[in-house]
């Protein structure tokens, strides 16, 4: 929340106990970690841009969570949040990212040549392939905390950099507040348009302020490479196409990202990155690679099999409905993607998806023929 | 390239780069200030007010009408004593462009001082919303002497229920958009302690939103007393729903005729109501209850936010002055279908709402009729206005029933300037 930094000083006149949030009914990572003692320890701190502990946790206080789904419950307002509030965020990160320790190092690998296979997923089953990630521009506050001036500066820099892309990455920017009805409809039909967040998880963190100012969508003329500006992160970068050629999708993804990064560097700006957390993004759940590589795949038989969940778990994959997070599957078609973000490189994660989806399709085919899949069930990755 | 070196060369500011190399250390976020997020003070200088001025071209609210780039430039870097800023006051108006037909206010106060520190915005907003009331030159009359009300008992065949509500803020504690959890809990403590001292027909009980049993909750719903977490973006964008349901609750007397909401849109909302048309009695209880609560908090060293320019200080500028809405649920089957209905209401300074409250539609022929104005007229004046107006509406209804014609009354005079 964009409270002035000195507001936090005034809260200090009340005792820590008086300010400590009521987390008795909460089930999220923040609530598990934030004891009264930890609150007392951290409440007087703030980042150089004025982001405070209460700003970090507001979304987790306002959204107690769900008994079955463990949300994160905290966000970063700038790069330094992860340093200044490490005593809260390190355990949250450890819990969320499979035991990732404060001393662990994260490997970045955006060399798509290192991916084995991935160009031959059966298009009779794999309807589309997609890879997304996020990037934050160093020196600017993140969506929960940025001022309008900063958000606009991020937009201007992004447009400048993206306009310099050439070849099959050449494209156009559509500002959310300026688009014509025809442009808007086209973007909806292409499934490119993002809308003002409605999820209370996002709203409570202050990310939707000033909507739709400085928000927009850039995509290449071929409609296979897409960048969201100032939605939940500074940039969300998406490579996608119909069919099962994940290798091609990932290659374009890596090429595009690398080009964009160098275009920003030419203009004196780096992406937020460090060797412990990888790419720094707003939500701790997206640290590391920030990468979700997934397919829309037909698994009508496999999805009804008793071992479906177990197989996914062992393959380190997760399922979603085809509307994205928090939606249900329609007609036996599932969105299958990597469950991990941090502690594995980009290549490693996409490899898991490619290998895992290949196996799932094999299993689907066997079940179609009435055969057993017991001998195909994998070991835990 | 090692990571920390890479960070240094990617920075924009070579002065900081040279300084940090000269200092011989590469550690610490503070040293890499200009490569990292800008310190708040630096940010203020790097982004002039023009860079932050909101895009209000598609907006239709009082704040957007009043907030020029010049006013924004003057006020952007000011702070109230509670460190509340202009951007925080206007966030709700920036996020909610408004409706072509309904002009919302578009700004809120974070504390009592907001109205002073940001007077250059709030004064024109107040003028716009309250029919030209000028806080620099006018004073607002407060009058809670219910004995002055005449003809305050309506025909029960038409009036189904009568209600008066207002709000009160506890001086010295920040308002709902700005308050910390500790402040909000303090508001709750001060108010609930005071209410425990009420006696006689005002004896009652407090139900904390977070602690109530399912049975209590259902009873409060059945009594139409329960308020829920705000869903209106007008309120949520003003930061009012933070930490819900912490320190929120409902107090009501045993008779269920006097009700107080704690920490919803204001520190307190005070409601007196009963079935039937005895508005006089409703207002008597209202005034008596308010005075007793005020006395009880004063005994403990607290007081309500009030001054003679703005009357009672509340979160939304639309509720300044009396913060009072006196209304009835009244059946007007014939009059409501008459084409002159709206004009009659306008001239009587009344507004109609559906029986679900603001932004609802009327069901059947029953309307919620209440005063339009809040500031510039006293409580007694406004309630009398409602009394006279509703009596007139009932007269019209009766005439139409008998097949007689009705007259549109002359428009009422605004406050004395």
TrEMBL record, chain A:
Organism lineage string: Eukaryota, Metazoa, Chordata, Craniata, Vertebrata
All residue ranges annotated as the Phosphagen kinase N-terminal domain in the record: 11-98
Name of the gene this protein is made from: ckba
Superkingdom field: Eukaryota
Phosphagen kinase C-terminal domain sequence ranges: 125-367
Alphabetical list of InterPro entries matching this protein: ATP-guanido_PTrfase, ATP-guanido_PTrfase_AS, ATP-guanido_PTrfase_cat, ATP-guanido_PTrfase_N, ATP-guanido_PTrfase_N_sf, Gln_synth/guanido_kin_cat_dom
Name this protein carries in UniProt: creatine kinase
Reaction equations catalysed: creatine + ATP = N-phosphocreatine + ADP + H(+)
Keywords: ATP-binding, Kinase, Nucleotide-binding, Transferase
UniProtKB/TrEMBL annotation, chain B:
Recorded topology in the membrane: Peripheral membrane protein
Disulfide bond in keyword set: no
Residue positions binding ATP: 161-165, 224, 269, 325-329, 353-358
EC category name: transferase
Gene3D superfamilies named among the record's database cross-references: ATP:guanido phosphotransferase, N-terminal domain, Glutamine synthetase/guanido kinase, catalytic domain
One GO cellular component term noted in the UniProt record for this chain: mitochondrial inner membrane
Domain spans labelled Phosphagen kinase C-terminal: 158-400
Coarse class of the protein's main subcellular location: mitochondrion
Protein keywords: ATP-binding, Kinase, Membrane, Mitochondrion, Mitochondrion inner membrane, Nucleotide-binding, Transferase, Transit peptide
Pfam families (UniProt xref): ATP-gua_Ptrans (PF00217), ATP-gua_PtransN (PF02807)
Record has ATP-binding as a keyword: yes
Domain Phosphagen kinase N-terminal: residue ranges: 45-131
Biological role stated in the UniProt entry: Reversibly catalyzes the transfer of phosphate between ATP and various phosphogens (e.g. creatine phosphate). Creatine kinase isoenzymes play a central role in energy transduction in tissues with large, fluctuating energy demands, such as skeletal muscle, heart, brain and spermatozoa.
Name of the protein in question: Creatine kinase S-type, mitochondrial
Originating organism: Austrofundulus limnaeus
């Amino acid at each position: 929340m964009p409270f002035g930094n000195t507001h936090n000083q005034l809260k200090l006149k009340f005792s820590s106990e008086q300010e400590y949030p009521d987390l008795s009914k909460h089930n999220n990572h923040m609530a598990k970690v934030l004891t009264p003692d930890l609150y007392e320890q951290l409440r007087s701190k703030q980042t150089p841009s004025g982001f405070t502990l209460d700003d970090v946790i507001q979304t987790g206080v306002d959204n107690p969570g769900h008994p079955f789904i463990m949300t994160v419950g905290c966000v970063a307002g700038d790069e330094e949040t992860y340093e200044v509030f490490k005593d809260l965020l390190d355990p949250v990160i450890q819990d969320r990212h499979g035991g990732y320790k404060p001393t662990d190092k994260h490997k970045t690998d955006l060399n798509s040549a290192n991916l084995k296979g991935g160009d031959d997923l059966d298009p009779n089953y794999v309807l589309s392939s997609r890879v997304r990630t996020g990037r934050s521009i160093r020196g600017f506050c993140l969506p929960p905390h940025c001022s309008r001036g900063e958000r606009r500066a991020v937009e201007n820099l992004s447009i400048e950099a993206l306009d310099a892309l050439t070849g099959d990455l050449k494209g156009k920017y559509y500002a959310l507040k300026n688009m014509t009805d025809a442009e808007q409809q086209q973007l909806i039909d292409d499934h490119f348009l993002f809308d003002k967040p409605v999820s209370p998880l996002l709203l409570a963190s202050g990310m939707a302020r000033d909507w739709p100012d400085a928000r927009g969508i850039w995509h290449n003329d071929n409609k296979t490479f897409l960048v969201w500006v100032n939605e939940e992160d500074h940039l969300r970068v998406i490579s996608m196409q119909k069919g099962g050629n994940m290798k091609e999708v990932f290659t374009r993804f890596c090429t595009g990202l690398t080009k964009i990064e160098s275009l920003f560097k030419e203009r004196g700006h780096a992406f937020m990155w460090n060797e412990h957390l990888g790419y720094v993004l707003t939500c701790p759940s997206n640290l590391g690679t920030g990468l979700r590589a997934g397919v829309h795949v037909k698994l009508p038989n496999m999805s009804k099999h008793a071992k479906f969940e177990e197989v996914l778990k062992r393959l380190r994959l997760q399922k979603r409905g085809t509307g994205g997070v928090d939606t249900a599957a329609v007609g036996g078609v599932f969105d299958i993607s990597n469950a991990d973000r941090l502690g594995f490189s980009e290549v490693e994660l996409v490899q898991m998806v490619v290998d895992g989806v290949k196996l799932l399709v094999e299993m689907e085919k066997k079940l179609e023929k009435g055969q057993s899949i017991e001998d195909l069930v994998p070991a835990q990755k | 390239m090692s990571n920390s070196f890479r960070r240094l060369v990617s920075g924009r500011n070579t002065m900081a780069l040279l300084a940090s190399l000269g200092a011989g250390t590469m550690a610490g976020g503070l040293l890499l200030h200009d490569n990292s997020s800008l310190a708040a003070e630096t940010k203020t200088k790097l982004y002039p007010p023009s860079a932050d001025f909101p895009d209000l071209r598609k907006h239709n609210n009082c704040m957007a009408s009043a907030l020029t780039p010049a006013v924004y430039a003057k006020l952007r870097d000011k702070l109230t004593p509670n460190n509340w800023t202009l951007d925080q006051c206007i966030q709700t108006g920036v996020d909610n462009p408004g409706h072509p037909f309904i002009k919302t206010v578009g700004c809120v106060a974070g504390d009592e001082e907001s109205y002073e520190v940001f007077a250059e915005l709030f004064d024109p907003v107040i003028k716009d919303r309250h029919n030209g009331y000028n806080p620099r030159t006018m004073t607002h009359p407060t009058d809670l002497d219910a004995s002055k009300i005449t003809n305050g008992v309506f025909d029960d065949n038409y009036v189904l229920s009568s209600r008066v509500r207002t709000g009160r803020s506890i001086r010295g504690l920040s308002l709902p958009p700005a308050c910390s959890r500790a402040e909000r809990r303090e508001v709750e403590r001060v108010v609930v302690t005071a209410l425990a001292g009420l006696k006689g027909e005002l004896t009652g009980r407090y139900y904390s939103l977070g602690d109530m049993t399912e049975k209590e909750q259902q009873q409060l719903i059945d009594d139409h007393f329960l308020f829920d977490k705000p869903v209106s973006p007008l309120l949520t964008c003003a930061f009012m729903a933070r930490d819900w349901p912490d320190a929120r609750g409902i107090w009501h007397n045993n008779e269920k005729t006097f009700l107080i909401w704690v920490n919803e849109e204001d520190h307190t909302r005070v409601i007196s109501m009963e079935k039937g048309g005895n508005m006089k009695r409703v207002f008597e209880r209202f005034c008596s209850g308010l005075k007793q609560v005020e006395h009880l908090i004063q005994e403990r060293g607290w007081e309500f936010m009030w001054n003679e320019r703005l009357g009672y200080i509340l979160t939304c500028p639309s509720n300044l002055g009396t913060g009072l809405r006196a209304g009835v649920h009244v059946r007007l089957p014939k009059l409501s279908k008459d084409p002159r209905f709206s004009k009659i209401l306008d001239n009587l300074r009344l507004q109609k709402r559906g029986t679900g409250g603001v932004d609802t539609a009327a069901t059947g022929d029953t309307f919620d009729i209440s005063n339009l104005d809040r500031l510039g007229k006293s409580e007694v004046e406004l309630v009398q206005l409602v009394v006279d107006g509703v009596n007139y509406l009932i007269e019209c209804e009766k005439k139409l029933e008998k097949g007689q014609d009705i007259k549109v009354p002359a428009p009422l005079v605004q406050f004395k300037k």
